[in-house]
Amino acid sequence: MADTGITTRGDALTVSEVSRLAGVSVRALHHYDEIGLLVPSARSDAGYRLYSRDDLDRLQEILLFRELEIPLDDIAVLLAGGAFDILLPADADLHFAKIRVFHGQILAHETQPAADLAIRVAGLAAAEGVINA
């Protein structure tokens, strides 16, 4: 079995272990703790943050919302309100598909003004051609 460099303390992981596992910086994890978004379930006798499996599940939800470019303040509201409850495996694909569609709609909405402007410019250019002809 390959050595991952991760040693568990019961079911808990240290901040550096979570950082390596999740691909986020230690500083980001400290910040999430400071703002109350991801507060570790325990502390070691020396005061080090220790993360449980539930903490890792919450971090996964946070990272999903961050990937969708949702601000941390909004993520806190979503998670506090239970808007993103734990999904059953059978429902997960459906929910992720809905998230991808919603994300696509957001991107389309953001690019629509540029597309509208391009059409207007083309229409003005065509009208100018008719006037100058």
Give an account of the 3D structure.
The chain is mainly alpha-helical and 133 residues long. Helices cover 64% and strands 5% of the residues. It contains 5 helices and 3 strands. The protein is elongated. It starts with 12 loop residues before the first strand and ends with a helix. The model is unreliable at 1-8 (pLDDT under 50).
Short description:
The protein has 133 residues and is mainly α.
- N-to-C series of helices and strands: EHHEEHHH
Count of helices? 5
CATH architecture of the largest domain: Orthogonal Bundle
Rough shape? Answer: elongated
Q: What percentage of the residues does DSSP assign to strands (E)?
A: 5-15%
| Biggest beta sheet summary | 3 strands, antiparallel
Rg of Cα set: 23 Å
Roughly how much helix do the residues carry, as a percent range? 55-70%
Q: Can you tell me the CATH topology of the largest domain?
A: Multidrug-efflux Transporter Regulator, Chain: A, Domain 2
The total number of structural domains is 2
Strand order in the largest sheet: 1-3-2
- Which parts are unreliable, with pLDDT below 50 for 5 consecutive residues or more? 1-8
Mean pLDDT reading: 77
Which structural class fits the helix and strand makeup? mainly alpha
Q: At the first level of CATH, what is the class of the largest domain? A: Mainly Alpha
Please count the beta strands (DSSP E, at least 2 residues each): 3
- Report how far apart the termini are: 77 Å
Task: Describe this protein with a few key phrases.
2 domains; three-stranded antiparallel β-sheet; 133 residues
